[in-house]
Predict the structure.
Amino acid sequence: MEHGGLNFVIDLALMLIFANLGGMAAQKFNQPSVLGQILAGVVIGPVMFNVVAPNEIISTFAEIGVILLMFLAGMETDLYELKKSAGASAAIAVGGVVMPMIFGMLAIKVLYPAETLMSGAFVGVILAATSISITVQVLREIGKIKDKTGIGILGAAVIDDVLSIIVLTVVVGLADPGEGSGILFVILKIAAFFVLAMVAGRTFTTFMNKNSSKMLRNRNVGAFAIIICFMLAFVSEEFGVAAIIGAYFTGIVFSLTPYNTIVEKDVSGIAYTLFTPVFFLNIGLIINLDGIGGIIVPLIVLMIVAVASKIIGCGLGAKLMKFSAKESIQIGIGMIPRGEVGLIVANVAKNGGFISDSMFTTTILVVVLTTIITPPMLKKAYES
């Protein structure tokens, strides 16, 4: 389909129609609506009917969707519980990074004996990165986002994101010293962001709470919240931290103000009407099955590694922190999806010539497939 003029409006209309139909169909089969939205993208995308093709405008809407989704996740996070579970989240995150790195490197060594150790290291980083936007939506749907395990998953994902960025910097620095920006420099930038976010957050909430009687007259508080969310998302990206982390912290900040109910209502209305359905459906659109016949075995092996390494690594971390066996499995499953961070790492590896085209295709499919299988697995884990 051509994408000149206002054709993107038709694409968005079709995406919203099928996202809603897919969501309703999934719920009819007692599955999370997000699964139906992703599969709707597969149906109308290049894999099947090719009614809508991925393009820059859709990607932009999808990016806004995930930022708003994580903002709302932050608003639903109990800050006290998040602080209380910081140690547990760190243990879960470390297990969820170390185990996929080890398993991923071993898998590449077996599947591609001729490839270098660096190729395995890059695949390990791809498998280590977690994107919980899918998990967040499922937890919201089943009412578990404020649960002990939900808080553990959210906290672990934040730490996991930071650890993955640091590990990526180390791997890039070792693979091509001229490309690395300095491991210490990256760590200092990330630390500076979190310090800045905490100081700014405390200052902002104090100001809002003291001036609530004056500012409550302003009915544009929802728009104000979105502006702050976008600004902090941009700042976090500039500091080397994923934009969704900045959005998540903004949500936490606004949850501590007198306007949390108003903001959540305003933002969720915008997010769930337009942007988040596009984000979930776009995952299905970007699936590419060209040349899949030659990578079936590596794909199956890496999918097993991707799932098992997170369940084992994060599950062990959770078990060590006194979670029950059932809760540990729930947390491990919640950490399975790889998303934007994994895609970024894959592109860095391919553009730098560190992984082959077949390895690139395989890892991209693993990233997408892990987002598809997680919703039904997570829902089942909480039901059993």
